[in-house]
Specification:
The protein is of the alpha/beta class. 30% of the residues lie in helices and 24% in strands. This is Bleomycin resistance protein.
Length: 178
């Protein structure tokens, strides 16, 4: 359910109310709380949903396609290591390559064994919250092919994972106030 108040005004009011109670919160954190109240994963999604479409064009989701070569290894990496769930899979017939959708916490990826669908070695940039917790979760799985760490970059906290097919997913959490 959408509020009649403008989301930015709601975030500003939330931040002011918390500051009156001596609870410090960044503007970015207030925006993400308002987004959660609207039922979306983060402020960027809410802002995109509320962006005026002057020409009638509106994009609702980005879904990268990543090329895979071995279904068993792809399942081990995406489902086992990264903790995604398998949403669906498709084949055009017997002895055809897999095309599947995996997702987790608002991120959706398509995995394709079809030649020409995607280029191995691509990079996907994903904004997220909770990068420290995710890194700890991955470290706890003790995956022998990857031990990602978090780098403190000028634009945010970044954790890059590389799948067995040389595709990189660069997870980035914006710095507070960023």
């Amino acid at each position: 359910m959408r509020s009649h108040l403008e989301p930015k005004a709601m975030a500003k009011a939330l931040r002011a109310a918390l500051q009156e109670r001596q609870i410090p919160i960044t503007h970015g954190a207030a925006l993400d709380i308002v987004a959660a109240q609207h039922g979306v994963a983060n402020w960027n999604i809410l802002a995109a949903e509320n962006a005026p479409a002057t020409d009638g064009i509106r994009f609702s989701q980005t879904c990268p396609i990543l090329r895979i070569f071995d279904e068993t290894i792809a399942r081990e990496f995406y489902l086992g290591f990264l903790g995604f769930q398998l949403d669906w899979e498709h084949r055009f017939g017997d002895n055809f390559p897999l095309y599947a959708q995996v997702s987790r916490a608002g991120l959706t990826l398509h995995l394709s064994g079809h030649h020409g669908d995607a280029t191995p070695g691509s990079t996907v940039f994903v904004r997220m919250q909770g990068i420290g917790a995710y890194q700890q979760e991955l470290a706890g799985r003790n995956y022998k092919h990857g031990k990602p760490g978090v780098e403190d970059e000028a634009w945010g906290l970044v954790m890059t994972v590389t799948d067995p097919f040389s595709n990189r997913i660069r997870f980035c959490q914006d710095k507070p106030g960023g």
